[in-house]
Amino acid sequence: MAKNGQTAGKAADCARCAPQPDTKKVEQPHKRALINRMRRIEGQMGGVLNMIEDDRYCVDILTQVSAIKAALDGVAIQILSSHARGCVRKAVLEDGGDEVMDELLGIVRKLIR
Question: Which of 2, 45, 76, 112 has the smallest number of Cβ neighbours within 10 A?
């Protein structure tokens, strides 16, 4: 078994990354953790709103905005990783994965802008 139970996680990624026909709905393997992270980010955003309303110092607000961006990037990386280990791996094994690889590269381009 790989470090931190990665072997079991990879199997789960593939099993859950099986979209139903004609839908793009996929259950995230670490859904609860992702929801918790997004709720924390939501709280940070509320904090920034309060800082703006309270006329806080610009640099303090920008520091919090930077933290929010980093937290969102972390969520994106986690979802991208699950997608690559699940959906993309499955598509490559089944049919070469040309379409899903193009889709993956497109989203990576968007993420690095």
Answer: 112
